[in-house]
Write the structure tokens for this entry.
Amino acid sequence: MSKIKLEVGKTYINREGEEVKITSCDGGYSHPYRGSDGQWYAENGKWGYDSQEFPADLIEEAPETRHTFTIPDGTKGINVSKEGNRIVVEMVPEKEPKPEPGDVMVNENGSVYIFKEVVGYGNHNYYARVGKSGRLSFEWTCNSGRPATPEEVQPLWDALKKAGKRWNAETMQVEDVPEEEPKPGDVLVNEQGSVYIFQSVRGNGEFHNHYAWLGENGMLSMLRLCYPGRPATPEEAQPLFDALKKAGKRWNPETMQVEDVPEVDAAERCRIMDYLQGYANNVTWNHEQLCWLIEQYLRHKEAK
């Protein structure tokens, strides 16, 4: 064992293998060095006052330790310093830039908003905000957030569009989207929850004529009038097409008519039944097998 001479800032090993860092030296006569364990030591590392060996005696310098680490995302830089025989590595996080008016943010509550300004207690005023529930609001205050990703921003644009509004980044305003005159065949939805295929404007625009209309209660009607509405989203339009299908009808955008879905005639039905007699008696078919069977029938029909 080599002799040691304690120095402030260095780390040593005691007889029990524990590390002790020398934190200060008060210049005392016999044991002036104070360790991180709260004990006092002589310059040669002895804890006791005689030649007896004690577990707390510092007997050698702690070896240098190599560490492998991963630099986390958002690290702006790394500070490296030396404390005695120890290397201290400090990750310096990158500070998030302060939001500018018009930046789209998202907070811990899942609300997406267009930032306006910082207000008391770190909250943010916003121009427009959509909550996690889909509720849209304007010119109010919410919990502060971070910059939103493009995917996180989309629900806000969708909510504004659905409300007939849009964000103008040049004027820094939420503005109404000018309504376009509906064209015959457009699918609209009104405030009463009715979905309809627009035909024409009735009177001074207080009513619309329609080709087909589905009320919120599920009632289906044709070629009547209803309260005017706005363009329907694909999700809002689907129940109307489902109701037409259930009623054995379909919308033909080429002829601009609601027409009956043609049924397979009785003769064709009999031909199908005759063909299946040789294949499908008391047999269970999976999808792939059914597809093969239909293909075989079509080939058989073409051959005839």
